[in-house]
Design a protein that fits this description.
Blueprint lengths: L5 H27 L4 H31 L13 H12 L3 H8 L3 H9 L7 H10 L23 E3 L2 E3 L1
Antiparallel strand pairs: 1-2
Length: 164
């Protein structure tokens, strides 16, 4: 995941600084209260992972803004479509407001789409967004490999009743 807007990126950088400061204060308080080194270590490692994730999101955002579309990964899992749509918008230099205007939705709706990685968005809307971004997508369907853990069963509705 990335941090999708300049202001949110600035807020995230500020948040990282504040988190580092808070970490130092909390560790000192825990030590003063006699907390075990093991507990303090767990707390510190958790906070450091959060800081690292935020810094990674900021780094990816900067990379997309500087290098553009060429930095996009190929999607091998359809569930990654949301991440790619957010990254493609940033790399294309198109704002959330511009996407909203073309789609005839509010900017808040686009923000919601991006926060939820476009969960539940229709294929038609995905195609429209890709077109706005100057991109195209193809889908490849292939049989499961032998030994796959997928059952291959598909639930479908037939005349109001569930079927398999």
């Amino acid at each position: 995941m990335i941090i999708p807007a300049n202001q949110r990126q600035n807020d995230a950088l500020l948040g990282v600084k504040e988190l580092k400061q808070a970490l130092r204060v909390v560790v000192k308080v825990l030590k003063d209260k006699g907390m075990s080194d093991a507990v303090i270590g767990l707390f510190e490692s958790s906070a450091e992972r959060t800081i690292s994730r935020r810094l990674g999101m900021i780094k990816r955002y900067k990379e997309l803004k500087e290098k553009g579309i060429s930095t996009l990964d190929e999607i091998t899992d359809i569930l990654d479509r949301g991440r790619i749509l957010v990254e493609a918008r940033i790399a294309s230099g198109i704002s959330q407001a511009e996407v909203a205007k073309i789609l005839k939705v509010s900017q808040a709706r686009v923000v919601h789409y991006e926060k939820t990685c476009y969960y539940g968005i229709t294929a038609n809307r995905v195609q429209r967004i890709l077109k706005i971004l100057g991109l195209d997508a193809q889908m490849t369907v292939s049989p499961l490999k032998k030994g796959s853990t997928k059952s291959g069963k598909i639930k479908r509705r037939t005349h109001g009743k569930e079927g398999v």
